[in-house]
Design goal:
The complex is a heterodimer of chains A (about 375) and B (about 260). Chain A is α/β, with parallel strands linked by helices and about 375 residues long. Helix content of chain A is about 50%, strand content about 10%. Chain A has helices spanning about 5-15, 15-25, 40-45, 60-65, 75-85, 90-95, 105-115, 130-150, 155-180, 190-200, 205-220, 250-255, 280-290, 300-315, 330-345, 360-375; strands at about 30-35, 50, 95-100, 120, 235-240, 260-265, 320-325, 350-355. In chain A, the strands form 2 sheets. Chain A has a 4-stranded parallel β-sheet with strand order 2-1-3-4, with helices on both faces. In chain A, strands 6-5-7-8 form a 4-stranded parallel β-sheet, with helices on both faces. The radius of gyration of chain B is 18 Å and the shape is globular. Chain B starts with a strand and ends with a helix. Classes of the chains: A alpha/beta (about 375), B alpha/beta (about 260).
Chain lengths: ~375, ~260
């Protein structure tokens, strides 16, 4: 099944690297970002382009292991490996990398990365309350001052507001695509949802990206086709981020007959679930919206459960699969509480899958995925 | 009319022939898997057919399971060993609430309903920790087959084995032997470490009802005693515990 809007989106996003280089030659500054807690709006307000950085491929892990411990999570190793090999064009194009102290593994890796690349570290609090928000807002303010100095610009309320509006438009557009999967059966596979979100995070022209996504939402929304039968079990995938190259569990679930309807992770739905309040004080609005992200590094992490409950009902999920990257302690430990919540409160079957990026355990994972789907029948 | 279930595991291929209507077992067979899962499945099935005195062609339905399930061209359907072990165990012991299975390359704890349907399950991690592979490593070091290990472990005082990883456990065992530990104590120690691993796995699912232990290791009396004592409850063990998956597959074929 092909939709011309998706084909167009793919053609344009195939040129992401070229487009970024063209923009750079025209004098545009590039800000590379790793984590969902780093605000895209700050780069946009500084007149720069925020882009995601590579970290979803297995290939670069081998190089990373010359420095990082093997037992570390594959996402951290992959990201660092790209930096060591200088094989991520987005990282190469970045004038600065904005990162945050999300988890222990990341923050120590970022210390090593800082030896190779200009970086700005945001010190992320691990609780979501008023003093933490105050502190987080100060972190954003320092980032703003840093950008002003680095790029020789002044960032005022006007710039922030227009950046928020731009990012919100993009968010709304991506959300309208991801929300297509609420329909039963879903017109898009989980693989397509994942790929669209992944590609969209590397588009240098944000308005263009929003336009293309709006087209997809319109075209696919009007069609009645679906790659699934109405009886395909609908899986809500929660947990760690997934992108092209680290998509094996999404593919495996769908190869075994499931329809992954929502990816509740920071590479996909967490990005778009909430808009930034456009009427409030911009810096406060940004800090509070980003701090609310339910990553497992937060302690406690109440929003994780609130999201799950909401998404399971909105996407009419039949089951929840929690994906954990091997070595990611916070998501691995939290999985126990998530399981309890999903089984006892949502009354849905639950499966945790712990794996890395390599294909070595494909057959073993297939047994788990197939057995889980047999359980749903 | 007869039906068949074929379970091709990493160590052995098992086949069970059932009477479709009465669900009575007509015959069962077990052959080592070796390097060719497809041939092993074929051999197990042929042997079971000849023991039952039925023609292959007269089987109305064949269900394949186990890691080699996708390699069986003759199977009408393939179902995972999780579903099959659950059905097989509940068929043999109707009050089963939990099925524990230790296979050659993975181990699992399965919570089941009265009708044998799976409610929840957990499996070991990616590595071979807590699987039958663990015993194969020990058997290689001590130069004893698995039966002899069981007899040795029965009279040993468990040595402390802390490693869960099959590779590191090997290093640890070699170290213990170098320090003069007795083989029977090492065997008893490995049994206890494996049993404890199963206990922690089973605690990850909500357990109720009786516990049924399936898979090849369930035919080792000393290991079964060790597992029961670590679990704190008696476990059900079938006469041919390694056939439980194939039996479950045959029950699906008989539906």
């Amino acid at each position: 099944m092909s939709h011309s809007s998706i084909e167009r989106f793919k053609t344009v996003t195939d040129r992401n690297v070229l487009a970024l280089q063209e923009a750079k030659q025209a004098g545009v500054k590039v800000v590379g970002q790793y984590c969902i807690y780093s605000p895209l709006e700050m780069a946009l307000a500084a007149g720069a382009v925020p882009v995601s950085l590579c970290g979803t491929k297995n290939d670069s892990i081998f190089s990373a292991e010359s420095i990082l411990p093997r037992s570390l999570c594959p996402l951290i190793k992959s990201s660092f490996g790209f930096a060591l090999e200088d094989s991520c064009p987005y990282l190469a194009a970045s004038d600065i990398v904005v990162a945050d102290t999300t988890c222990d593994g990341k923050k120590k890796m970022f210390e090593l990365l800082a030896e190779r690349k200009p970086m700005f570290m945001l010190q992320l609090p691990q609780i979501q309350n008023a003093p933490a928000l105050e502190y987080w807002k100060e972190q954003y303010e320092s980032l703003m001052r840093h950008f002003e100095q680095l790029f020789g610009v002044v960032i005022g309320e006007k710039e922030l507001r227009s950046a928020i509006a731009k990012a919100n438009r993009f968010r709304r557009a991506l959300k309208s695509v991801l929300d297509l999967a609420r329909k039963k059966p879903s017109p898009l596979s989980g693989m397509e949802l994942m790929e669209i979100a992944h590609r969209a995070s590397f588009v240098p022209d944000w308005d263009k990206a929003a336009e293309l996504l709006e087209d997809i939402a319109r075209e696919v929304g009007a069609s009645n086709e679906s790659p699934f039968s109405a009886s395909a079990p609908r899986v809500l995938l929660t947990g760690v981020p997934v992108g092209l190259g680290s998509h094996k569990v999404v593919k495996l679930l769908e190869d075994c007959g499931a329809s992954v309807v929502c990816l509740d992770n920071c590479s996909c739905y967490k990005k778009v679930r909430l808009m930034i309040d456009e009427s409030a004080d911009p810096l406060t609005a940004l800090a509070s919206r980003y701090l609310d992200m339910p990553c497992a590094v937060m302690s406690p992490n109440p929003n994780r459960y609130a999201y799950l409950e909401e998404l399971a009902s909105e996407f009419r999920a039949d089951a929840v699969v929690d994906l954990t990257w091997q070595g990611c302690q916070t998501y691995d430990v939290e999985s126990w509480s998530v399981k309890k919540f999903v089984r006892e409160k949502l009354h849905l079957p639950f499966l945790q899958i712990v794996t890395d990026y390599s294909p070595a355990d494909t057959e073993q994972l297939k047994v788990r995925a197939e057995a889980f789907l047999e359980m749903l029948r | 009319m007869p039906v068949a279930g074929v379970d091709v595991g990493s160590v052995a291929a098992k086949a069970v022939i059932l009477n479709e209507r009465t669900k009575a077992v007509l015959a069962h067979a077990l052959v080592p898997t070796g390097w060719n899962p497809r041939q092993a499945g074929e051999d197990a099935l042929n042997r079971a057919c000849s023991l039952a005195g039925v023609e292959r062609a007269s089987l109305t339905r064949i269900v394949g399971t186990g890691y080699g399930r996708i390699a069986l061209p003759f199977a009408d359907k393939s179902v995972t060993e999780i579903t099959c072990h659950a059905l097989g165990a509940v068929h043999l012991f109707p009050r089963t609430g939990v099925v524990l299975d230790i296979g050659g390359q993975d181990s699992k704890a399965i919570a089941v309903d009265a009708d044998g349907s799976v409610q929840d399950f957990v499996m070991n991690d990616k590595c071979a920790a807590g699987t039958g592979r663990f015993l194969q490593v020990l058997s290689g070091i001590l130069g004893m087959d698995v039966r002899a290990l069981d007899e040795a472990a029965a009279c040993g005082k468990p040595a402390e084995i802390s490693s869960m990883c099959a590779v590191f456990a090997e290093t640890e065992i070699v170290g213990l032997l170098a320090q003069g530990a007795k083989p029977e104590d090492v065997a008893a120690g490995v049994f206890r470490s494996l049993a404890r691993r199963m206990v922690s796995l089973s605690r990850r699912i909500a357990c109720r009802g009786e516990c049924t232990f399936t898979g090849g290791l369930a035919s080792l009396p000393a290991f079964v005693r060790c597992l029961s004592s670590e679990l704190g409850v008696a476990v059900n063990v079938a006469e041919q515990p390694q056939n439980t998956g194939a039996l479950g597959a045959a029950l699906i074929a008989a539906r």
